[in-house]
């Protein structure tokens, strides 16, 4: 109750400051970002929550595979989600190819496209947060409720209520992304705060004379992020022993089991399979114009040839993306290991990690870029301007800020499950803080370090919002190129690049999950 009251007071103070200090344009754009967040939440929260409850509490056939597929979607960059779904339901996509002009009112463009695409991208995150909340809840209340009531009544009155903090975290996460991301809104031509700020700078607006003040959206996003990360910190149990190793499975009737399984797998199939199918369709589509008529047919050979050609044609993009990802992932790993270990050994570490992650994640990507431009783009300093124009240092810093919060939270959850006596024994042997960090904390977990490195690499190579404005001349990455090409429609060449990027993301996701499994199992044992 005290936490809810504190959150309400903070939000009211932020709203008052915005009303007093925000100009009409800023307030209108922040209202547009809020509308985008509300629309996306209306799509993602019910679907993601139902998937989490069904896969977490019901005996769904193949539920571990379904959970794995949803987890893979967490690694899918937002611009890939946008490109894949627009290949199916966007302008010049599959739906328009099939029914022509009749598809125009339903195309994923404008406000409809922005809301639907943000909502679809947020479904896996909603599933993740709610599933984590259910996994951290002791099963006794639900098992006792099953003795006195039906499965449906227990799910509605007990399980759903216990999942409420996870739903709230997911809602705040959606709000943070809607305020800080401009990928979807830029492609769908929707004006929100982040999109207008990004567009103004790319059109040559001076950083110190931007038409929009930075602080209102940063204030709102920061408040929401601090609340979200504080709640995320509370998701973790106070000790590893309180985490249930095996969640309860509720009995269901055969007909209900069949219906629920079919509904869950239909949803997972649409989320996972439909975008891939749309990209494969677009990459293999051949249009033959003869006799004044256009004949469309699909060729698997064209898909293979286009994928091979894209790997050769865009080899430079892969090289720059790998270089940027390696630099950023190395820095992210070193910082997150040090900070997470330090926080896991102090009573105030939970609040410190939540605050650091909230501050870093709460700053919108374009504002990160503007801050770095202001810091490094100084013509009077030969060193700074060299670093800004001739190296990848600045975009590496930008993507490190983007990837650091998630890696911090992940490592903190793993480190805090350690037995404290190991660290105390190392102190008694005379080891200093840094030697204890690497010998007790880091080197005992090479698989975890590798997983965090891959996670940071995936986040760095998929970023657009923070790195786009600070990428030096002559440097181009895969994410930047796909983002630019999506503005002209999901044609066959961009579809092939999206398929390659999806394959890379899925591979890194599978390896990361496999590397992290032993760590989470040992934390629950």
TrEMBL record:
Domain (ABC transmembrane type-1): residue spans on this chain: 30-232, 318-515
Lineage of source species: Bacteria, Pseudomonadati, Planctomycetota, Planctomycetia, Pirellulales
Protein name per UniProt: ABC transmembrane type-1 domain-containing protein
Cellular component terms per the entry's GO annotation: plasma membrane
Location(s) in or outside the cell: Cell inner membrane
Its membrane topology: Multi-pass membrane protein
GO biological process: transmembrane transport
Domain of life: Bacteria
Segments crossing the lipid bilayer: 32-56, 68-88, 108-130, 167-194, 214-236, 257-281, 317-341, 353-376, 392-412, 447-470, 494-516
Keyword list, A-Z: Cell inner membrane, Cell membrane, Membrane, Transmembrane, Transmembrane helix, Transport
InterPro entries: MetI-like, MetI-like_sf
Species the sequence originates in: Blastopirellula marina
């Amino acid at each position: 109750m005290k936490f809810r009251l504190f959150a309400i007071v903070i939000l009211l103070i932020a709203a008052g400051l915005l009303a007093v200090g925000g100009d009409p344009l800023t307030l209108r754009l922040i209202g547009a970002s809020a509308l985008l967040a509300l629309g996306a939440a209306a799509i993602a929260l019910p679907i993601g929550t139902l998937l989490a409850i069904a896969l977490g509490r019901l005996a769904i056939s193949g539920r571990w595979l379904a959970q794995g597929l949803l987890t893979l979607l967490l690694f899918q960059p937002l611009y890939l989600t946008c490109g894949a779904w627009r290949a199916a339901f966007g302008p010049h996509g599959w739906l328009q190819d099939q029914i022509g002009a009749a598809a125009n009112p339903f195309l994923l463009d404008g406000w409809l496209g922005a809301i639907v695409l943000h909502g679809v991208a947020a479904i896996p995150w909603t599933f993740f947060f709610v599933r984590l909340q259910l996994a951290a809840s002791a099963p006794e209340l639900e098992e006792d409720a099953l003795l006195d009531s039906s499965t449906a009544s227990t799910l509605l009155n007990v399980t759903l209520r216990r999942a409420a903090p996870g739903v709230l975290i997911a809602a705040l996460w959606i709000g943070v992304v809607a305020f800080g991301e401009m990928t979807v809104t830029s492609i769908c031509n929707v004006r929100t705060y982040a999109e207008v700020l990004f567009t103004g700078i790319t059109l040559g607006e001076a950083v110190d004379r931007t038409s929009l003040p930075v602080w209102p959206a940063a204030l709102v996003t920061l408040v929401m992020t601090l609340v979200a990360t504080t709640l995320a910190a509370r998701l973790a149990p106070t000790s590893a022993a309180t985490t249930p190793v095996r969640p309860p499975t509720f009995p269901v009737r055969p007909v209900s089991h069949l219906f629920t399984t079919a509904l869950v797998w239909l949803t997972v199939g649409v989320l996972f399979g439909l975008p891939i199918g749309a990209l494969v369709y677009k990459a293999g589509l051949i249009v033959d114009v003869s006799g004044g008529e256009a004949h469309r047919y699909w060729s698997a050979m064209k898909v293979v040839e286009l994928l091979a050609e894209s790997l050769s044609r865009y080899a430079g993009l892969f090289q720059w993306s790998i270089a940027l990802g390696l630099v950023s992932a190395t820095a992210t790993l070193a910082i997150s290991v040090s900070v997470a270990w330090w926080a896991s050994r102090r009573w105030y570490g939970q609040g410190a990690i939540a605050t650091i992650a909230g501050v870093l994640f709460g700053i919108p990507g374009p504002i990160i870029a503007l801050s770095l431009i202001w810091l490094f783009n100084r013509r009077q300093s030969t060193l700074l301007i060299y670093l800004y124009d001739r190296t990848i240092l600045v975009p590496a810093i930008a993507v490190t800020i983007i990837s650091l919060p998630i890696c911090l939270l992940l490592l903190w959850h793993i480190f805090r499950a350690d037995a404290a006596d190991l660290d105390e024994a190392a102190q008694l042997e005379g080891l200093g803080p840094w030697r204890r960090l690497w010998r007790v904390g880091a080197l005992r977990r090479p698989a975890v370090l590798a997983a965090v490195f891959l996670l940071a690499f995936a986040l760095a190579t998929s970023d657009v919002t923070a790195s786009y404005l600070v990428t030096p001349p002559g440097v181009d990455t895969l994410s930047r190129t796909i983002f630019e090409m999506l503005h002209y429609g999901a044609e066959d060449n961009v579809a092939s690049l999206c398929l390659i990027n999806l394959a890379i993301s899925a591979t890194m996701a599978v390896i990361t999950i496999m590397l992290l499994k032993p760590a989470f199992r040992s934390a629950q044992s």
